[in-house]
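Researcher: I'd like a structural prediction for the single chain below. Treat it as a standalone chain; there are no partners to consider.
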Amino acid sequence: MEDILILDVNQATLDLFQAPDKATLLKNTHKIFAKEMLSTFREQLIELWKGNIHHQREAINYALDGSIRNVLLQFTVFPGYEHNWGIVQVALTDITARKKAENYLEYLGKHDVLTKLHNRSFYSEEIHRLERSMVRPISCIFLDMNGLKAINDYHGHDAGDDVLRRVGQILTQSIQQTPYTASRIGGDEFVILMHGADEMAVSVMLQTIDALLTLDNQFYSSQPISISMGYATTREHETMESMLKRADAEMYTNKKMHHDRV
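Model: Treating it as a single chain, here is the predicted structure.
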């Protein structure tokens, strides 16, 4: 890449990379062609070696202020230079806005907008993935909020949404620095899937959730959160479905005990 000599650029290229003039851009090509561009350039060379002197691909460049530019890169070797690739034209189309929209739509497909946790669709896919995985044990924790309907009925759905967001924050913090996933699978139902986690790891996670929940309730003492939980770890030759049913059943048992106490 250090052997590349840029002969000329148009005004649209200067605008794309936020360069005030051509001289500034040419002095800072190392900022534009950085990081991911190494892989893109390698792929371009492979295309050339295959004899493909006209090709296009999506790439990532950087403006001079360091911001990302997603581009559609169209690469064409000039006539007469097919054998040494001495002069080429590179046309760039800015697709940054489109990529952001695509990434957001992908995010929405796997996440719950309110709590920022994964959604039920992701949860179902993750179960199938873990079922096929050779790594065992696998553990899970089912969580169900107590009293969400009452909060919605007496304080309004905005108050209920605030409580759900708090649960999302608690679970997000609980799984930080771990390979585990947390999903909202229903209105007030959540699941943490723990790949490669045994009973001891589950115990630590339960303590973490309890500590974070206690701390959160101290800050929001007028609207404390109550959660019923159930958990399980795969036994030898046990299926994911069976393990999940055991955890779900324990959670509902604990929820019934909570309502009986109330």
